[in-house]
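Need the bound structure for pyridoxal-5'-phosphate, inputs here:
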Amino acid sequence: MQLNGNMATDDNMLTIGGIRADKLIAAYGSPLYVIDQADFEDRAQAFKQYFVSEKFKTHVIYASKAFSNVYISELAKAAGLHIDVVSGGELYTVLKAGYDPSQVYFHGNNKTPHELAYALDQGIGTIIVDNDYEYQLISDLAKERKMLARVLLRVNPGIEADTHKYIQTTKEDSKFGMSTTDPRTMAFIQAMAQDPAIDFAGVHCHIGSQVMKAGFFYEEAQAMIAFAKQVESQCQIDLQEVNLGGGFGVYYTDKDQPLNLAEFLPAYIKEIEQAMVANDFSCDIISIEPGRSMINDSGSTLYTLGAIKHPQMGLPFAFIDGGMSDNLRPALYQAEYEAAIANRINEPADQAFRVAGKCCETGDILIQEIKLANPQPGDILVVPRTGAYTFAMASNYNRIEKPAVVFVKDGQSKVAVKRETYADMTRNDCSIKD
Ligand SMILES: *Cc1c(COP(=O)(O)O)cnc(C)c1O
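Answer from helper R.:
Posting the output first, comments after.
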């Protein structure tokens, strides 16, 4: 397992942010989501530092769906990031964290009238429109409120990034946004631009997730800027913003060669600047929306091992006290992870195991095959790089309580989300006797 961020070892024990894994489990229970706070803060600053231009302002927007709670929203705010949300619940969370509503972008392919009204009433900065029906809702709600709603339109430039098909989003038949090649798109923009309740600010696109090749982002930037120019000339309007979305790939296993931000982001800026010159286009703001690449590396999950089971055939199982309830990704789309025995971190990992969860699903296998150092019941298994789309997708399947989230930094730890209790899980249950 590759150590990352502020991981180290102390006498054969893994430490994160200066705290031993066994101390974290003893203090907060198991399983446990652990977030390396300094690692997140460093990455937020790297995005801010490297995604800059002298030609336009840049917004680095944290896609909070990757890992949403009040604590991380407070950190994102302190780091000077904008933030995006995809539901009323995520919006509520960032507002509760004290986000200035003008810094919030609201996404989603089917925002409800209730969510849109909530967003407008809270003075949300920008709504990304997905379709004509949604635009009508926003326009009517804004008129009722005598407000001007700032919107971007989500479009698909038809770039097929080579990622898993569930996380690929801009093919021509994608459920998200409108195609740049659809003749109705330009007429739709024209209508929005002429609507007195709408401040049509620009276009948005997000080409998918876990994209490793910089070339796809360059292609996207060129296509989007060419399209933005076309919008300006055909609709006789000035666009303020082009939002290029997120999707920057990260390391999970040695199959992944992630983008190096210090190299990629300045190169990306250069591509954008060149595309602007080539298309004779300019605008005030260019935005990006990193989610996974902002938080994934900072998160680890600690589990306690139960039985080590040797079936008649196949690999032996190492059973963990969690599974698809705290990390759905392997069951959902065959995501892969590394792992190690945290309390024997320096010992050679030389025997192959299958790491299985405790949920009642055959598909609840966290890792299909991984070499571990002589795992025993009671050992701590660390699965690194679980910051994104794990806690965010957690469920109470089998009525398993969601683990606590603890932030660690410089030898200090702080609970960001308390562990659920059995009582929490039945809080909204009503009795036949009620
Ligand atoms: C999910 C999403 C993101 C973030 O994607 P990552 O792969 O986590 O970087 C950004 N923008 C939009 C519109 C999204 O839906």
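Comments: Residues 214-235 form the longest helix (22 residues). The pocket of pyridoxal-5'-phosphate is lined by residues 63, 65-66, 107, 206, 209, 245-248, 289-293, 388 (CB under 6 Å).
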